[in-house]
Specification:
2 domains, respiratory chain, Rieske_Fe-S_prot_C, elongated, iron-sulfur, transmembrane, alpha+beta
């Protein structure tokens, strides 16, 4: 019995020694106890070629302001392309629109790209790249703090060379200023420029009495019996379907597009003057959002709400398309409709108010 106990103790001692050996640090291995990790400091600074070679520095400076002037030229080209490839009147063909978008887009893209590459090259090759450590300190608005802030700006100006490298600075200002010009130029097409009042233009659509409602873009006339409960149809005037692009198809469609929805007649809340604007629960509203003109095309059958995907304005179809949520300022204009002798849906008249955004002065 004693021999067995001795053997057991020897085995336990052997296992303990094995474990200690396994976890014993190997020779030369440093073991951290209580000593904190020392700050290794910043690595040695490596001078760039532009720091060592004055000619390389001058080449980099020339490259930077050349890129900025390339940006100016690209911005000017974008404006020139707007004039060289017009898309108004008889020039409103698909080829002209494609070329207009392509060359204006290329001009704007190169203008912004040249500014970006020039700014990056400036920071990589010319600006000071010496590393420094900024110690944390408590934030306070004392005079020394203000003086330090002024000094920081002065140091940044000195390190970047912004104040003394006039060619780079002036070319950057020119590039930034020129990059805005194409956008300003494109504002010209936000509304037709034929001398008419914008409110009057948006009050004149191709809808008139007797105009049939047809599907967009097929041009198929719609019967009242085809409009099922809870359905929504994208509608244009029948006369618009035969209009060519050169005759202003896109411009007229942008104003005349309509959404047709059918509800149960008892679900409609209608004022006395609009009792006959719907037909058997079928209502037609302008598809152009009254916020900024996005297409209102998302219909929720359960809530009877129309949703604008751009800024989430919601309109209640069952109650004069009034605004129930979002930034839109007024309800969607309603198109009065009825049926003709053949059962096709037709307009009783045009819109009685301007369609589209509400940011113009309306009378």
């Amino acid at each position: 019995m004693a021999n067995e106990e001795d053997k057991s103790d020897m085995a336990h001692e052997h296992d303990t020694q094995a474990v200690e050996k396994a976890y014993r640090p190997s020779p030369g291995l440093a073991v951290a106890v209580d000593d904190p990790v020392k700050n290794p400091g910043l690595p040695p600074h490596r001078a760039r070629i532009t720091d060592k070679d004055p000619q390389a520095n001058r080449r980099a400076v020339r490259t930077i302001y050349t890129l900025f002037y390339v940006s100016v030229a690209a911005s000017i080209w974008a404006v020139a392309a707007y004039m060289l490839f017009p898309i108004e009147g008889d020039n409103a063909t698909m080829s002209a629109i494609r070329n207009n978008n392509l060359f204006i887009g290329l001009g704007i893209a190169f203008a912004l790209l040249a500014i970006g590459i020039g700014a990056i090259h400036w920071s990589k090759a010319i600006m000071s790249d010496k590393e420094f450590v900024e110690e944390r300190h408590t934030t306070r608005g004392s005079e020394p703090t203000r003086a330090a802030a002024v000094k920081a700006f002065a140091d940044a100006n000195e390190e970047s060379g912004f104040g003394r490298r006039k060619m780079i600075r002036n070319s950057l200002f020119a590039a930034l200023a020129a990059s805005i010009i194409p956008g300003i130029t494109l504002f010209r097409n936000l509304a037709p420029n034929d001398g008419k009042d914008p409110v009057q233009l948006l009050n004149e659509t191709m809808w008139e009495k007797g105009e049939r409602l047809v599907l967009d873009p097929e041009g198929t006339p719609v019967k009242a019996s085809d409009v099922t409960l809870g359905s929504a149809f994208h509608i244009i005037p029948e006369s618009l379907a035969s209009l060519s692009h050169s005759d202003g198809y896109l411009e007229e469609k942008a104003k005349a597009i309509v959404l047709l929805v059918r509800l149960l007649p008892e679900q409609l809340t209608e004022s006395e003057e609009r009792k006959d604007w719907s037909y058997d629960g079928i209502v037609a509203y302008s598809k152009v959002c009254t916020h900024v003109g996005c297409p209102v095309a998302l219909y929720e059958q359960q809530t009877h709400h129309l949703l604008c995907p751009c800024h989430q304005s919601q309109f209640d179809v069952s109650d004069h398309a009034k605004v129930v949520f979002g930034p839109a300022a007024r309800p969607l204009p309603q198109l009065p409709i009825t049926v003709d002798d053949e059962g096709y849906l037709v307009a009783k008249s045009g819109f009685t108010e301007p369609v589209g955004p509400s940011f113009w002065e309306r009378h």
